[in-house]
Amino acid sequence: MNRRTIELLAPTSLYDASRADINNALAGEPSYRQKQVWTALYEQFLLPEAITTLPKNLREKFANTFPVALELVTKSSADNGDTVKFLWRLRNGGNLIETVLMFYTDRATVCVSTQAGCAMGCTFCATGQAGFNRQLTSGEILEQIARASRYALDRDRRVSNVVYMGMGEPLANEPAVHESVDRLHDDMGLSARHITISTVGIVPGIKQLKDWSLPVNLAISLHAANDQLRDELVPINKRYPIDQLVDACNEYLTVKNRRISFEWAMIKDTNDRKSDARELAAICNQLSLAPHVNLIPLNPTPGWPTDASPMGRVREFCAELESFGVNATIRRNRGTDIDAACGQLAAGQLSG
Ligand code: SAH
Ligand code: SF4
Fold first, then answer.
1. Ligand 2 centroid – CA 120 distance (Å)
2. Which domains does the chain have, with CATH numbers?
3. 125 CB near ligand 2 (under 6 Å)
4. DSSP-H helix ranges across the chain
C-alpha cells in the first residue's frame, strides 16, 4: 500500500484530502456543497466548525472524516505584530511543531515545518539538538499555511510567499514536501517563484528537486566552505561532502538555470574570518551561475554555547565577499525574542 493510499484511508489532516476526496465524501449532497467546502478550505481557510454555509450535521460529519491536524498551543508575536509564531501540537502523536508568519510591507511570508524534529543534527540548530520524531504529511504542511493564511486574512493580508525553513529537513521528506508544493501552487494559487525550499544539502534530494515541474527557489544551508569545518557544523556533510554538493548544484543549474542561494549563519571566530570569505568565494565560483549568499547572524542556542559574529564583523565579511566578486546580503533575524527565528523552533517547549 503506498503512502497516498494510507493517507486516504485515514487522513492525518483535512488538507491531505484532494478535491476528488472531498467531492466523494459529499456524494449524495447537492452539488453546490462541493464548491462551498472547497472555497471555505482553500480561499477562506476556515476550519470545518466555522464553515457556517454548511448545515451543522454536515459540518460535523465532514470534521469527523477530515480531521484538523494542528491544535494551537500558543501564539506569540514580536516586531510590533509583524512576526507571529504559532506553536502546534500534532493531533497524531502529540509532537510540537511551529510555523512563523512574517508581514513585510510588500509581502507576507510563512515559514513552515516539514518534520517534527530533524535527524540531521546540525550542532548550532535547536531542532537538530532535539532529534527526530516523525515526518509530516503534505496535509500537515499545507494546514500550517492555511492556518497562518486565515490569521493574515483577518488582518486584511494575504500570504504571498512560503519558505520551507521551519523545523525539519525538507529533502529528507521529499514526497510530502513535493506534494505540498504542487498543491500550494495548484490549489492555493501561490506562484512557484514565491516558494523556497531550504536544504542542508541532501544530494539525492537536490537531484529529485531538479526534476520537479515547478520552478521553486532553492536555498542551500552551507555555513562552512571546507569539509573539515562543515563536517563539524553540519554532520550530514560527511555523507555528502562539499564537492558532491557543488556537483549537485551544477546539475540543478543545468536543468533549471535559476540562481541558488547559500545560507551562512555567522558564527563568531568559527566561519567569519577573511579566509572563510575567500573559501566561500571559491565555492561560489565553481557554480555555473553565480549564487547569492545570505548572511544571518547566528541565534545562539542553549545546546551549543557559541556567539553570533558581532554586527561589525558581519558587515566586514559581507564587504570581503563582495570584494571577491560574490553577491551577498545581510538578513535580519525576525522574532528572535520569541524564539521564532529559524532553528529556534519549539526549542523552548522541548527543553522544558
Ligand atoms: N533543514 C533545512 C531547513 C530548516 S533550517 C536547512 O537546514 O536548510 C532553516 C535555516 O535556519 C537553515 O539555513 C539553518 O541552517 C538555519 N539555522 C538553524 N539554526 C540556526 C541558528 N541557531 N541560527 C541561525 N540560523 C540557524
Ligand atoms: Fe535540521 Fe536544518 Fe536544523 Fe540542520 S539546520 S538540524 S538540517 S533543521
1. 6
2. 18-65 (no CATH), 70-338 (3.20.20.70)
3. yes
4. 3-9, 19-25, 32-42, 56-65, 126-130, 138-153, 174-186, 203-209, 227-233, 242-256, 274-286, 311-323, 347-350
**Which helix (H) or strand (E) element contains residue 77?**
strand 70-78
CA 221–ligand 1 middle distance (angstroms): 7
209 phi and psi angles, rounded to 5 deg: -60, -30
Give the C-alpha distances (Å, rounded to integers) separating 220 from 5, 324, 331. 32, 20, 15
Question: Looking at residue 9, what is its pLDDT?
Answer: 57
How many other β-carbons are positioned within 10 Å of the β-carbon of residue 209? 24
By three-state DSSP, how is residue 340 classified? coil
**Substitution candidate for ligand 2 out of 98, 120, 237 with most atoms within 8 A of CB:** 120
**Which residue's C-alpha cell is 540548530?**
125
Give 306-343 pLDDT, tens digit per residue.
Answer: 999 999 999 999 999 999 999 999 997 776 666 665 55
**What is the per-residue pLDDT across 106-127, written as a single tens digit (0 to 9) for each?**
999 999 999 999 999 999 999 9
Out of 111, 118, 249, 342, the active site residue is 342
The residue whose CA is least distant from atom 8 of ligand 2 is: 168
Strand partners, 186: none
Reference 140, options 70, 56, 242; nearest CA is 70
Report pLDDT digits (tens) over 241-284. 999 999 999 999 999 999 999 999 999 999 999 999 999 999 99
Q: Give pTM, 2 decimals.
A: 0.94
Task: Select from 97, 100, 118 the residue to mutate for testing ligand 2; criterion: most ligand atoms less than 8 Å from CB.
Answer: 118
Distance from chain centroid for Cα 327 = 23
